[in-house]
Amino acid sequence: MQQRGSRRPGDRAGNVRVRIGRRQARETVVRRRPVSRARHPNVLLLLAGFAGLIAAGTLLLVLPLASRDGHSAGLLTALFTSTSAVCVTGLVVVDTWDHWTGFGQAVIVLLIQLGGLGFMTSSTLLLLLLRRRVSLAQRLVTAETLGALGALGARNIRHFVRRIVFATLFIEAVGAAVLVALFAAHDGGLSSHNVWRGVFTAVSAFNNAGFDLEGSFHSLALFSGNAPILGAIALLMVFGGTGFAVWMDIARHRRWQPLAVDTKIVVALSLLLWSLGAGVLLFDELQPGGALEGAQAASAAVDAGALSVFARTSGFTPIDLSDVRDEMLFFLSGLMFIGGASASTAGGIKLTTFAILGFAIVASLRGEAHVTAFERELPWRLVNRALSVALLSVGLVFGAAFVLALTSDLPFTSLFFEVVSAFANCGLSAGVTTTLDTAGRLLIVLVMYVGRLGPLTVALALAGRDQFGGRFRYAEEQVSIG
Predict the structure, then answer these.
(1) Where in the sequence is the domain holding 306, given as residue range(s)?
(2) Residues 320, 90: Cα–Cα separation, whole Å
(3) Percent of the chain having pLDDT more than 90?
């Protein structure tokens, strides 16, 4: 009997017939593994911490002791001011000096300080002062919010937080001393008001808050063309809006080549935006009908340079923005939307987010499969995260501006400018905030809160997860673009 697969006489190699039986097809079901979700997500703790701080500030500001007229400011006014202080924005519905007493101003500056350092950093510091154990999860969240996880890891975050707090207090103290001397020279003598104004302004400037004690919603218009005062405030803003991780990297290497890509992006893009903003402001507002029309060249250059720095996130302004053209309000909205550096007191979508999207566009135009920056390849998860942050931010700004326009008869350009300022935690105002109704003010409060914590953070918190990534991938398929 001839066996299946055996060779017959005369057959050549490779000419063997093999009979293979058919197998029954079986269906295999691939089930998605459930994603484990923490019972208390860390991002929810961050959201709740900021909300609790805002609530505490509201309860203090609503007290009659906080208002100069001896009556309660009202829940909505207290809520708006507390949210603006905690989120280091600077938008106000009542003037800080004219309305709030010394107690109210002290509450505001304390909220600014805690909001600038960040709730997780402040709580970690509190635990360290009480000599209690800081959990690994809290260290990781703190490191992530400070942008220091990649460079320092969770072990050294305790030391890093101490250095942040010490550096913050030191820079603010030096800035306060300088501002007190400059205010005294400007007013022709030292007074208790100048001392308190210097301390308050230094804390507000370093934390990019934009609150001031000049009265009558003047901001820094009284110091128009004053290079020392505007320069000192701008320098404090730069220190706070750049981030400690960047300054530590610069201090450690002191040369351009070994700097981290994050540091290079922040430094290069900051210089570019400052120069571009100052040039555009100077060119446009010196034209007939502009806010700087008739000003001397030196004074106009100082004001334009200062506003270019302030517009990114601090909220101070040496000129009245109600006199600025609509196209310049739109340009300033772009600067505010970009904001400052990650892991800093600045707001906006952040410089690194904007730069990563720019590098991705360049790679796409060149036909390259990978995104590179300063001779380093950027992982796609960062590109996807930057794209998510940018699109969520655009959606939030346009949606809020549309809703605000439905409830107000004010010019849309001014309303859009106010929404971008609230989202970017900048605080620049075209004079719209004080005229908004209850619904409009509540909407601005929500935009400030979401803008401070970040659209992506809020989305992740609501989804109940604090990390990216899936456990399997689908089959790839092409779609049409363009």
Answers:
(1) 42-463
(2) 15
(3) 46
